Amino acid sequence: MSSNTVVLLACIAVAVVLVLGLANMMRGGSPNISQRLMRLRVILQFVAIVVIMGVVWWRSA
Fold first, then answer.
1. What is the mean pLDDT of residues 24-51?
2. pTM of this prediction?
3. CB neighbour list of residue 36: distance below 8 Å, 6 or more residues apart
4. CB neighbours (10 Å) of residue 37?
Protein backbone atom coordinates (compact mmCIF):
# COMPACT_ATOMS: atom_id res chain seq x y z
CA MET A 1 0.00 0.00 0.00
CA SER A 2 1.44 3.36 -0.97
CA SER A 3 1.82 6.26 1.43
CA ASN A 4 -0.74 8.26 -0.56
CA THR A 5 -3.30 5.52 0.02
CA VAL A 6 -2.64 5.46 3.76
CA VAL A 7 -3.07 9.25 4.01
CA LEU A 8 -6.25 9.07 1.93
CA LEU A 9 -7.72 6.32 4.13
CA ALA A 10 -6.93 8.28 7.29
CA CYS A 11 -8.65 11.39 5.90
CA ILE A 12 -11.67 9.42 4.69
CA ALA A 13 -12.05 7.80 8.13
CA VAL A 14 -12.13 11.26 9.74
CA ALA A 15 -14.69 12.51 7.20
CA VAL A 16 -16.96 9.48 7.65
CA VAL A 17 -17.03 9.79 11.43
CA LEU A 18 -17.65 13.54 11.14
CA VAL A 19 -20.60 13.01 8.80
CA LEU A 20 -22.05 10.27 11.03
CA GLY A 21 -21.80 12.53 14.07
CA LEU A 22 -23.38 15.48 12.30
CA ALA A 23 -26.17 13.30 10.90
CA ASN A 24 -26.91 11.95 14.36
CA MET A 25 -27.08 15.48 15.81
CA MET A 26 -29.25 16.79 12.95
CA ARG A 27 -31.87 14.08 13.30
CA GLY A 28 -32.00 14.53 17.07
CA GLY A 29 -30.31 11.26 17.93
CA SER A 30 -28.78 10.27 21.21
CA PRO A 31 -26.36 12.85 22.61
CA ASN A 32 -24.21 10.00 23.94
CA ILE A 33 -23.68 8.63 20.44
CA SER A 34 -22.83 12.10 19.13
CA GLN A 35 -20.33 12.56 21.94
CA ARG A 36 -18.68 9.20 21.24
CA LEU A 37 -18.48 9.92 17.52
CA MET A 38 -16.93 13.33 18.12
CA ARG A 39 -14.36 11.82 20.48
CA LEU A 40 -13.58 9.18 17.87
CA ARG A 41 -13.20 11.95 15.29
CA VAL A 42 -10.63 13.73 17.44
CA ILE A 43 -8.67 10.50 17.88
CA LEU A 44 -8.80 9.80 14.15
CA GLN A 45 -7.67 13.35 13.40
CA PHE A 46 -4.66 12.80 15.65
CA VAL A 47 -3.89 9.53 13.87
CA ALA A 48 -4.27 11.21 10.46
CA ILE A 49 -1.86 14.00 11.47
CA VAL A 50 0.68 11.47 12.73
CA VAL A 51 0.36 9.50 9.48
CA ILE A 52 0.75 12.63 7.35
CA MET A 53 3.77 13.80 9.32
CA GLY A 54 5.28 10.31 9.08
CA VAL A 55 4.83 10.29 5.31
CA VAL A 56 6.39 13.76 5.00
CA TRP A 57 9.33 12.68 7.15
CA TRP A 58 9.74 9.40 5.24
CA ARG A 59 9.68 11.13 1.84
CA SER A 60 12.24 13.75 2.90
CA ALA A 61 14.71 11.15 4.19
1. 94
2. 0.86
3. none
4. 20
